[in-house]
C-alpha cells in the first residue's frame, strides 16, 4: 500500500475526517507521494571490470584527462559515449 494513502487512512480514523481531506493537508505540508526504488545490484563480473578500469587509470595525470573529450554518437536506439584523444589519435575505450 502507498505510504501516503496508509498514513491518510490512519489519520482519518483518528481525526474523524475523510482520507481525502487528510491527504490534501499532508500535501500542503510539503510531503510528497514517492516510494524509493531499489537500485539494481552490480554483478561480480561488472565489479571486476570496474576495479580493473580503476586500477589502470589510477595513476593518470590531470593533463591526460584534460586532453580527452567526450564525443556523443547518436545511434537509432541509444546514445553511445566514447572518449577520444584530441588530435586524431586512435579512440581510447572506456
Structure description:
With 94 residues, the protein is α+β, with helices and mostly antiparallel strands. It has four helices and three strands, in the order H-H-H-H-E-E-E. The chain has helices spanning 3-15, 19-28, 44-57, 62-67; strands at 69-74, 79-84, 91-92. It has a three-stranded antiparallel beta sheet. Helix 1 packs across helix 2 (19-28). The longest helix has 14 residues, at 44-57. It is elongated, with a radius of gyration of 25 Å.
- Briefly note the structural class of the backbone: alpha+beta
Radius of gyration: 25 Å
Mean pLDDT: 71
Q: State the total count of DSSP E strands.
A: 3
Cross-sheet strand order for the largest sheet: 1-2-3
* Helix content, binned percent: 40-55%
- Biggest pleated-sheet summary: 3 strands, antiparallel
Protein name: HTH_Tnp_Tc3_2 domain-containing protein
Topology (elements, then pairings):
Elements: H1 3-15, H2 19-28, H3 44-57, H4 62-67, E1 69-74, E2 79-84, E3 91-92
Antiparallel strand pairs: 1-2, 2-3
Organism: Trichonephila inaurata madagascariensis
Protein name: HTH_Tnp_Tc3_2 domain-containing protein
